[in-house]
Amino acid sequence: MNHFLDNSQPRQILDEIFAETKRIKDLFGLDRGKDYLRKALKHKRIVLLFSQPSTRTRAKFEWAAKILGADTLVVSEIARTSIVKGENWRNTIKTYAYGEADIIVIRDPRNFAPMEAAKICDYYGFKTKIINAGDGNNLHPTQALQDLYTMKEHFGEKFGKEKLKIAIGADLKNAHVLHSLVAGLAQYPVRITLVSKKNFSMPEKYLNLLIENKIEFKATEELTEGEKFDAMYWVRLQTEHIPDVFQDFLKKHYNRDFKITPRFLKTFLREDGVFLHPGPRAGEIDDKIDADLRVKDGNQVENGLYTGMAILKMMLNPNFRFPRPSEI
Ligand code: CP
């Protein structure tokens, strides 16, 4: 694995990532297992360059890197970097690369900023690899890994074999997690229902990807009572991509039309289904749904730690072999 910038990995690579994730998760559950994990990235240097707010993704990569024994540098206050003195993106990336960063994990409000960083590293021949931890309203490729892994864990053997029926809502235009999710799901047998108002619909590029991959899908403004889904994946209104003057109005309507309540789940989610949400929650969820065991956004966060470790390890030390729990 060179850079990790998008969700173009074929199913075989995704399945390898999930197999490594499972090994890591099993080891992490054992005290002695943690000692083995710590050897995987000893002396590696990982920079977290986060110029947009993040709770989960930043914690995921900082913890994942530390558990695997890497040294980390977290840069999350851009106001305290030389960017405010006028340093451009090229020289910022080159600076960390000259400083022997093995990986720079980038969260940035600009679409394609991590892809540009990868080109800069390649152009100058640096060993530094880039992970896209969310670029603008484009993609959030590593979030899709934990989402798919959580579905795989929930559905077991069924995932990847049976055509699961999945509803995805509702700010499909702006939620980078949903673009990545759809690209990842396109590798598996699924039937997708895209739920959104028309100004918040899925960009054509991802619809075309579904068509190319022969994925059955439909788009609708609202779900029809009587329909039931194996999985439902919802997001908040992505206010950071919407002009301030519209926000209050849109948020009120969005939460009225798309609020996830116990009744909503009772109506649309199968008894053995799963409800997922990438966080942060911002009013579009009634916290009463937490009593429902099908709500697994906490598992998504936990699995993010393991999928995060899996890709760091596969990118930096692919030949390092973790023992099976029975071998330690
Ligand atoms: N899911 C997600 O990306 O959350 P953060 O913005 O808190 O990292």
Helix content: 40-55%
**Spatial shape:** globular
The succession of helices and strands, N to C, reads HHEHEHEHEHEHEHEEHHEH
Bound molecules: phosphoric acid mono(formamide)ester
**Percentage beta strand:** 15-25%
Number of helices: 11
Look at the helices and sheets and give the structural class: alpha/beta
Number of strands: 9
Low-confidence stretches: none
Placed side by side, the strands forming the largest sheet appear as 7-6-5-8-9
Gyration radius, to the nearest Å? 20 Å
Account of the protein in words:
The structure is a single chain. The protein is α/β, with parallel strands linked by helices. It has helices at residues 11-28, 31-39, 56-67, 89-98, 113-123, 141-155, 176-185, 204-212, 244-258, 262-268, 297-316; strands at residues 45-50, 71-75, 103-108, 129-135, 164-169, 190-195, 216-220, 229-234, 269-276. The strands form two sheets. It has a five-stranded parallel β-sheet. A four-stranded parallel β-sheet has the order 2-1-3-4, sandwiched between helices. Strand 5 (164-169), helix 7 and strand 6 (190-195) form a beta-alpha-beta unit. The radius of gyration is 20 Å and the shape is globular. Bound molecules: phosphoric acid mono(formamide)ester.
Write the layout of secondary structure elements.
Elements: H1 11-28, H2 31-39, E1 45-50, H3 56-67, E2 71-75, H4 89-98, E3 103-108, H5 113-123, E4 129-135, H6 141-155, E5 164-169, H7 176-185, E6 190-195, H8 204-212, E7 216-220, E8 229-234, H9 244-258, H10 262-268, E9 269-276, H11 297-316
Parallel strand pairs: 1-2, 1-3, 3-4, 5-6, 5-8, 6-7, 8-9
Bound molecules: phosphoric acid mono(formamide)ester.
Residues 54-57, 134, 140, 143, 278-280 line the site of phosphoric acid mono(formamide)ester.
